[in-house]
Design a protein that fits this description.
By secondary structure, the chain is α/β, with parallel strands linked by helices. Among the domains are: about 110 residues, no CATH class; about 50 residues, no CATH class; about 160 residues, no CATH class; about 100 residues. It contains 13 helices and 44 strands. α3 packs across α8 and α11 runs antiparallel to α13. It is elongated, with a radius of gyration of 30 Å. The model has no long low-confidence stretch (mean pLDDT about 90).
Length: about 675
């Protein structure tokens, strides 16, 4: 920090005299260095101790309400600081110590900003995610991704893998540790109390914070961080684009890009990744994967793994049974929704895109049944497989997530796949369908109800679940087939089957959701082996693999779909005739239209007479309808309804187009004969 720098020189006697005349004090004026064109005009009533470097102060800054200040140092005590050009430091009640303050920073009306000894600024804190008692600690650092955190937390059965990654992280922690903090260019620190051992990034807005201790604010010019009124944070890292304000309390947490924690939210020992939102409620030892959202005062998320979660008011979980303490944990796969006052007793595992309603005390496991309802009735957990495939809300969620990606930073840490149907969810539906068929074949219902894994499945729900899963699988495989053919020039039978060949063997077998990144497990296993044998030398190399996997998703997806045709239809693609491919397209079209009609009918319920209750408050029946339309709009013009109708028409045309293409090839083959 204080190496010899030819840009700086010592103060002249005239400059020292002027500073003294302007109320400034120093233990040793010889320890102060300034730039060549330095002028002491805008330094008043300030104390300097230790080594000091000062830049040039010649601009004005404008604060809220139109108040303007000349840049400079007023009413402050600086100890061992570098202050670069055109910084405003005004009204520091205590002192600023051991900081490099970059150009165009504003520090106004603060108490203490200081670094005491060597610190890592929140890097290296071990967060007890998922299990409150520990055992799944994730060491946080500036560039932590949801995928690295997933591995660190959940692959404890691979000890060598964990130890190597932790060593790489600890190397980074050592690299960034320092006895001097930094406030980067363009940052504003206004009306704050105590800031200790904190690194503040580019263009950050820290206004009204009460206590910030041992952390890093990784702001950027393109996507700045806001820390607002009443916030108290200790042992933290906050990434670009995030907002934390309104008396939010944070302890031992990582907060990823584009997050919003607001309105008295409280979080401890937790990880929040891209685009999470927490208002009013509480989090304890959670792994909040991308787009985890909780907006209600009475909601507690505890000791669990979540992503794309929408937590209803009063949702909570229990992580101990009053025996050995809070040792239990749970998993909610992507897209789960919990209704008001829902409850789960950990350990439980809830499948993707499932709606949880009521209170469940029997350690539910619905991991093989995505898109389901888990409903409580008389203390029994009732599973309704696949029913969420008929819900307009599921489709609305899948459309809104990409539009609610708040990240503007060019360097996006988390790789997020927003697809509703993917090898990850479709493999689960294939397995769920098989389980339901086995239950039907090998079990007898009692009063029309099957028992399975401490849950109940009504016979009609079982039959409907099989049908819905078959529709969704047919839709996914047809989508994959048509997309594949659309990407190639098709004029002959050879062109068709050449287009349908795999690009790569990668993609076969099991797929996993690495907290937002959907990928084949074989890719991960290869990466893990390379990490364990020392072929990978940095965290950056691991992240580059994750980026590559995300970019190659559709190529890998086709490899999986290619194999899935044999699993689902009992025939390899290489054995299909053109007529067989046409049948697949017909099956796809029928499935798409049936699902879309389910969605259309579900949307229509939102415009039923019962939903108009309370409208047209003092009028006649006609006033109720008019009031409803003015507030909610008309059914036919609702954006989601219009989207469904357009989707139905587009898929009809696409199916017709693809069949025509294949039929022309068939005619061409016949003519050649």
């Amino acid at each position: 920090m204080y190496a010899i720098n030819p840009e700086y020189r010592g103060l002249t006697s005239e400059e020292i005299g002027q500073l003294i005349m302007q109320g400034c004090i120093s233990d040793d004026w010889g320890l102060i260095e300034v730039k060549e064109n330095f002028s002491p005009e805008n330094i008043k009533n300030s104390t300097f101790s230790g080594k000091i470097r000062l830049g040039i102060f010649e601009e004005e800054v404008r604060l809220f309400g139109g108040v303007s200040f000349k840049t400079g140092i007023y009413n402050a005590w600086l100890n061992n600081c570098v202050v670069e050009d055109n910084v405003l430091i005004n009204n520091v009640k205590s002192y600023i110590s051991n900081y490099k303050i970059e150009s165009r920073v504003v520090i106004h009306n603060v108490n203490t900003i200081a670094v005491d000894g060597v610190t890592s600024f929140g890097n290296g804190i071990r967060v007890k995610a998922i299990n409150e008692q520990g055992g799944r600690e994730v060491t946080i650092y500036d560039h932590l991704t949801t995928h690295i955190a997933y591995i660190l937390a959940l692959y404890r059965h691979r000890g060598r893998l964990i130890s190597v990654i932790e060593k790489l992280v600890n190397d980074y922690v050592s690299y960034v540790s320092d006895s001097v903090g930094v406030i980067r260019s363009g940052a504003r620190v206004i009306d704050c109390d105590n800031i200790r051992n904190v690194k503040i990034g580019l263009a950050a807005r820290v206004e009204g914070a009460r206590k910030l201790f041992n952390g890093t604010i990784n702001s950027s010019y393109e996507d700045h961080v806001t820390i607002g009124d009443g916030v108290i944070m200790e042992n933290f890292i906050v990434c670009s684009g995030s907002t934390i304000t309104d008396s939010t309390l944070i302890s031992n947490c990582f907060i990823g890009q584009g997050c919003v924690l607001d309105k008295h939210y409280s979080a401890t020992e937790s990880l929040f990744f891209a685009n999470c939102q927490g208002f009013h409620g509480e989090a304890c030892s959670i792994f909040a994967g991308p787009h985890t959202v909780t907006h209600h005062k009475s909601t507690l998320l505890i000791a669990g793994m979540f992503s794309f979660l929408n937590a209803g008011s009063g949702s909570n979980q229990s992580n101990h049974l009053y025996k050995l303490g809070p040792i239990h944990q749970g998993v909610m796969e992507r897209g789960v929704k919990t209704t008001s006052d829902s409850y789960l007793l950990w350990p439980s595992h809830i499948g993707a895109f499932t709606l949880v309603m009521g209170r469940h005390y029997k350690h539910s496991d619905t991991s093989d049944f995505p898109f389901s309802y888990l409903i409580e009735n008389n203390d029994e957990s009732i599973l309704v497989p696949g029913i969420n495939l008929k819900s307009i809300g599921t489709i609305r969620d899948s459309k809104k997530w990409p539009t609610r990606d708040r990240r503007k930073d060019a360097n996006k840490l988390d790789q997020i796949n927003f697809n509703l149907l993917s090898p990850y969810t479709v493999q689960k539906m294939l397995n769920g369908r098989k389980i339901l068929l086995d239950i039907k074949k090998n079990s007898e219902p009692v009063d029309g109800v099957y028992a399975f894994r401490r849950m109940k499945i009504r016979s009609e729900a079982l039959e409907r679940g099989i049908h819905l899963y078959e529709l969704a699988i047919s839709k996914f495989l047809g989508n994959s087939l048509i997309t594949r053919l659309q990407g190639h020039s098709i004029t002959s039978e050879e062109d068709i089957f050449s287009a349908l060949e795999k690009d790569t063997p990668v993609g076969s077998g099991k797929w996993v959701d690495l907290s937002g990144l959907i990928c084949p497990i074989k890719v991960l296993e290869e990466l893990f082996e390379n990490i364990e044998n020392g072929s990978v030398h940095s965290i950056e190399e691991i992240n580059s693999v994750m980026v590559s996997v995300h970019q190659n998703y559709y190529s890998y997806e086709w490899t999986w779909a290619y194999d899935a045709f044999d699993i689902f239809l009992g025939k390899k693609i290489s054995d299909f005739t053109i007529e067989g491919l046409i049948e697949v397209i017909d099956r796809w079209k029928s499935a798409v239209l049936e699902i879309d009609n389910y969605l259309y009918e579900d949307a229509k319920k939102e415009f039923s007479l019962s939903k108009m209750t309370g409208f047209g408050i003092d009028g006649e029946e006609s006033d109720k309808h008019h009031d409803f339309e003015n507030v909610r709009g008309e059914f036919q013009t609702n954006p989601m309804v219009v989207s469904i109708r357009n989707h139905i028409q587009a898929k009809k045309e696409l199916g017709k187009e693809m069949k025509l293409l294949l039929e022309k090839v068939t005619e061409s083959v016949i003519n050649k004969l």
